[in-house]
Amino acid sequence: MYHLKLCKAKSYMGIVCATESKPDVYVPEKQQADKLVASGYFVLASEEENTTNEIAREEVSKVEDTETESLFEEPDEEGEDSLLVELQTKSKAELVEYANKNGIDLTGCNKKDEIYSQIIESIARADSAREMLRKG
Q1: With a threshold of 0.70, does the pTM exceed it?
Q2: What would the DSSP string read from start to end of 83-102?
Q3: Where is this region: Disordered (predicted)?
Q4: What does DSSP assign to residue 72?
Q5: What is the pLDDT of residue 39?
Q6: Residue 39, Cα to own-chain centre: how many angstroms?
Q7: Please, are residues 27 and 4 in contact by the beta-carbon 8 Å criterion?
Q8: Mean pLDDT lowest for which of 10-19, 26-35, 53-62, 124-133?
Q9: DSSP alpha helices (H): ranges in the chain?
Q10: CA Rg value for the chain
């Protein structure tokens, strides 16, 4: 997953949706990340340790509060790709159900693409939190 941040005072609607209020997006492929950065709308995000620790704490508390399947399960490369493919093939209602089951907040997400992006971002944040917890 590649973490990109929208440049200030811009919004972008395309492969991903980003606004000034939600500037962070996550894409699974380097080609997509490079294409978005080349557009001039995004920069690769460099995460500061404090910000990453805050994200890790938030994600851990979300997972602890839910009694459903954990987002922290360690998928292998093939498993992660199959999850992305599976999510892409789901209907809007199925994506909403998946998000609710996994404790993912969909506030402000009305379209299928927005819901999908929010789910992918949450999974990426959980992955980042897991890595930070492992590092200590």
Answers
A1: no
A2: HHHHHHHS-HHHHHHHHHHT
A3: 59-81
A4: T
A5: 83
A6: 20
A7: yes
A8: 53-62
A9: 30-38, 49-65, 77-89, 92-101, 112-135
A10: 15
